[in-house]
Amino acid sequence: MRTILHLDLDSFYVSTERLINSSLLQKPILIGGTNDRAIVIACSQETKAYGIHNGMPMKTAKELCPEAISISGNNAAYSKYSELVTEIIKEKVPVLEKSGISEFYADLSGMDKFFGTYKYAIELRQKVISETGLPISFGLSQNKTVSKVAVNVAKPNNQIKVDFGTEKSFMAPLSVKKVPMVGQKTYQMLRNLGIRYVKTIQEMPVDVMKGVLGTNGLTIWKRANGIDNTPVIAYSERKSISLEHTFNKDTIDLYKLKNLLVAMTENLSYQLRKENKLTACIVLKIKYSDFNIYTKQQKIQYTNADHILLTKVLELFNQLHQKRLLIRLVGIKFSHLIKGNLQINLFEKNTKQYQLYQALDHIRNKYGDQSIARASSLETHKLKTVSPLIPVIHKK
Fold this sequence. Notes:
By secondary structure, this protein is an alpha+beta fold. Helices cover 39% and strands 20% of the residues.
């Protein structure tokens, strides 16, 4: 029998800010920028009573709760504490999957014989709290879906164990919103059908759910019934995505080289967002005409935004490219990948910046990843027949 633990740092961004500045305790907090054109990335529990939620324009949030304290966000601190918690958990569990900057799955199967998994999970949670000062909750069950739902029921700063055989009854009274994969659009479809609670989905024939929602309907039906065989995938910091380009003719043309780096960075950034991932490390590679290879890397705050990554890539190129030799190959690699979304990287950006990324990605999803690009990188599209800009996922 499997035993899957899901740990989730409570209100991670708000908790981190309060850890750094204790004067923020029990005060309404809005994270996402200090100007009215920013968007709310995270908000404290005190603001939710005013109807404030993530993704809301900061101006609207401030109108609803004028006394709220606006914070631009400290991505460096969030990355630091995320990695600190990761190291604590990784040392104590057999298999760890980092599913986001503040969420973790661990497979504790078989440990009951020696430790008692619920007791062990409690001790692990207390270790995280005592060593970091951050509140954290967990759900423990036989699969990832039920454990994820359980941790949300357990919050704030608590724990729940769902015993084997009780998964279906645990899920039954919950809102269908609690089922993973049920977003706002799907929720509205289900509500239009008169489906409000998970129990109703459990009682429906699976063919009806498939008829309404297609293949997603089957997955939602299984999850509503507490069925999920998805494995915990071991977390590895060496997981990466990269691009390389070999020139037909070695070049020293800096204009061409930098435009190519722009195109490659755009492509990789889009792939990160498409797969809902963030990177914390950039590696730049140059191979010269004498076949000597040089690389330079830089750790960064978690991001998948073009403008942030592009600045860093060009900085690395300027630092690395010091020889007056012809260049045969350039490559970019983004590593230390975790799951995460675009919003946490746009603390100081306004809603137009966020909407621009959404619009560009929508066009790429519909017409292909090379369908739209910066003007400076257009020339590189002529190089596609020589060495296509196709990303490769590495997991060593």
